[in-house]
Structures are given as C-alpha cells and as structure tokens.
Design goal:
A hairpin with a 2-residue loop joins strand 5 and strand 6. The protein is about 15% helix and about 40% strand. The protein has helices at about 70-80, 85-95, 155-165, and strands spanning about 5-10, 15-20, 25-30, 35-40, 55-60, 60-65, 105-110, 115-120, 125-130, 135-140, 145, 170-180, 180-190. The protein is an alpha+beta fold. The protein is globular and about 40 Å long. It has a seven-stranded antiparallel beta sheet. It has a six-stranded antiparallel beta sheet with strand order 11-10-1-2-12-13, covered by helices on one side.
Length: about 190
C-alpha cells in the first residue's frame, strides 16, 4: 500500500519517511543538526517547492518532524515557548495542505523525552493530538493518527525501521531519540 510521506511519534522517539512515486531521487542530509530532504545528484531538475525542506529540527527540549516547510515555523514557535499543541495547530493551520495536484496533507510531530504530539492538516480537517504510544499519520490512506507498532530503541534503529516498513516507494528516512541527556538523530538513505 502507498501511504506517501509519514511520521511515527511517541514519547522519546520520532521517525519520518519520504515515500514517493513522483520524486524518488531524494536523500536526507545532516546540516549542523537539522535534517534536510533534498535531491540527489541523479535527480532531475524541478521547480516543485515541495521537494526540498527541513524534515527534522531540534526545538526546545526535543524535536519537530514533518513533511515540509511547516517544520521550521513549528520549531520556531516551540523555541519561543509555545506549547507543542499550539505550535503544531497554529503552523499547520497557517500553511494549510500543500497546493499541489493531490492537495497533499501536511503531517508533523513534536517529541520530547516525556511527551509527543502528532498533527495533520488535510483539505477537510486539522487534527492535533497528544499521544502516549507510537502513533502514525501519513499523507495518504493513513491520514488519521492511529496507534502503530514501532519498537525502535535508538535513532538509528528508528530510521532503519521506518525505511524498511512495507509501505510502498521508500525513498529515505530520518529519526530522533530524545532523552533527558539530549537528542540523537539518524538518517537512512537506503544506499547501503
């Protein structure tokens, strides 16, 4: 099944995966602690504004994950002291779903060592929930947050597990483990 881009978040752990039929030649790179999705050298040139974006940023005492440019304003609001729920709701509402041919929803999560929030804005809804177990939300098919079996113990294991999930068209993944000691991040680009 193709569910598009998705996040899985729970207290202390978050993962994001790019799944794409249209733009498969992408990777996640670490830019001084901010994980960014962008084209590989093999990618065709495009002026599509939804192909490159920060997908994971540290913010406050945790991280923000998501499938587009909304990651930055969510992280900025968290850094300013907004509660995670408000940062998600305000930013998702302001940016709305992507104005592409599919009205692609925006998905996001905020994870700290003890808490997790997940959000999505679709053409027909804005949902933001606090969750206490791993929860998945995706751009297609799985576009309502639901509990999801995701048992990784580290950022590296979470990135690998997200990438390996049986949903179709895996491109790359990013993940973070958040503890009281800090944030650990990892990338899986499927290249070995």
């Amino acid at each position: 099944m193709y569910i598009g881009r998705f996040v899985v978040v729970g207290p202390g752990l978050g993962a994001y995966r790019v799944s794409s039929r249209s733009f498969p030649n992408r990777q996640v790179v670490d830019r001084d602690g901010t994980l960014t999705v962008g084209p590989t050298d093999a990618a065709e040139e495009t002026d599509n504004p939804y192909v490159s974006y920060n997908c994971l940023r540290e913010a406050g005492s945790g991280v923000v994950l998501g499938n587009g440019s909304h990651v930055d304003p969510i992280a900025e609001k968290v850094d300013m002291g907004y509660p995670a729920r408000d940062a998600l709701a305000l930013s998702l509402l302001a940016l709305d779903f992507e104005k592409d041919d599919y009205d692609t929803p925006r998905v996001a999560g905020v994870v700290t060592a003890d808490t997790a929030f997940v959000g999505i804005v679709r053409r027909d809804a804005l949902l933001v929930e606090e969750v206490d177990e791993p929860t998945l939300v995706a751009t297609y098919e799985e576009d309502t947050p639901r509990a999801f079996d995701f048992a990784a113990e580290s950022a590296e294991a979470a990135a690998e597990e997200a990438y390996a999930l049986s949903f179709e068209h895996a491109v790359c993944a990013a993940a973070a483990r958040v503890t009281e000691a800090g944030v650990e991040t990892a990338v899986e680009n499927g290249d070995g």
